[in-house]
Amino acid sequence: MKLFLRGHHLLCLKGFQGYGYDESFTKNMTEINNIRKQSQTTIALTNSPDDICKCCPNLMDNLCKNQLHDKMIVQMDDEVLKKLDMSKEHDSIELFEKIDLIFNTEESVSKICFNCLWHDKCLFYQKLQNNR
Ligand code: SF4
Ligand code: SF4
Hints:
The protein is an alpha+beta fold. The protein has six helices and five strands; from the N terminus they run E-H-H-E-E-E-H-E-H-H-H.
């Protein structure tokens, strides 16, 4: 199966533990988090609405209307995408292993996670904080 994912959502999936904006969002994110762990899954990268955004109540007129606003969300994506090859489809398991290697300190995610509203629910971010 092929997933379309925004750059910064690669990190968010690693920190996901069942919280979200509403029931539909959480159900969809749970499914995607399961699919991305399966061998055979491939991932195409984007800095626009993806398979997670499609079930998000913040998506309006194909733009993210959450408190951070679309422009900042795209900047978060681009901070991740500049370290990856966007021109190809990635093997999901390999891609998420790579994410762990690239984003392995609090400093490495400072321009991505600094303004996020989910710090206290995100296992990925908390792990980096604990490794300080
Ligand atoms: S802190 Fe926020 S932006 Fe960063 S990985 Fe976690 S959920 Fe995503
Ligand atoms: S808050 Fe914005 S970037 Fe995050 S899932 Fe919703 S629409 Fe997508």
